[in-house]
């Protein structure tokens, strides 16, 4: 168990993404919004929670079959694109206040996804030494 991860910037961001995605899901479900809105928020909640558990339990170090930070970046970018489309529709159409609240929370989640992708890109580029000065393994 990585006790330092929840206190790190990336850990706090993952926890925040999970909570905002859950709040977005609850708003969409409570307002009886279109199923696509709730499905996207639900998938985002589950996938972000799985990445949070992956890093919290240090499974990324054990399962080396995939480069997990890159998979996390791809997830963040694709989530941001889907959230942009769906939440703009939810805000523009705003069938009721719950749908509007879910759309606004979804746009906040979009910003968190972009920040997460940027932090992960910086981590990937700063953690690995490149060029001739890299030590041989």
TrEMBL record:
Organism this protein belongs to: Orthonyx spaldingii (Chowchilla)
Keyword Ubl conjugation: no
Membrane-protein topology: Multi-pass membrane protein
MARVEL domain boundaries: 5-125
Record key words, sorted: Membrane, Transmembrane, Transmembrane helix
PANTHER family: CHEMOKINE-LIKE FACTOR, MARVEL-CONTAINING POTENTIAL LIPID RAFT-ASSOCIATED PROTEIN
Protein name: CKLF factor
Cellular localisation: Membrane
Transmembrane regions: 12-31, 37-57, 69-93, 99-121
Principal place of residence: membrane
Signal peptide residue numbers: none
Superkingdom of the source species: Eukaryota
Gene expressing this chain: Cklf
Gene Ontology CC entries for this record: membrane
